[in-house]
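Quick start: what a row looks like.
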Amino acid sequence: MKSVTRICPGCGRPFTMAQSDYDKRLNLAIDMPLFCSTKCAFHGWDTKAVWYGAYRRAMDNRKS
């Protein structure tokens, strides 16, 4: 089963979903945002959280 990894626009964390689910959502609306959870979908876009999450992951990768 194939999966797709996306970055959540609500919290900035990477998450995976099945390719078939991803294709179904794209067929509904190509510009619909894909959130990792209901909590993130409820709170919506949080650019500070996305930036901080990306920064934190980059620092973690740098330590490794």
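That is the whole record. The longest strand covers residues 3-7. The chain has a mean pLDDT of 84.
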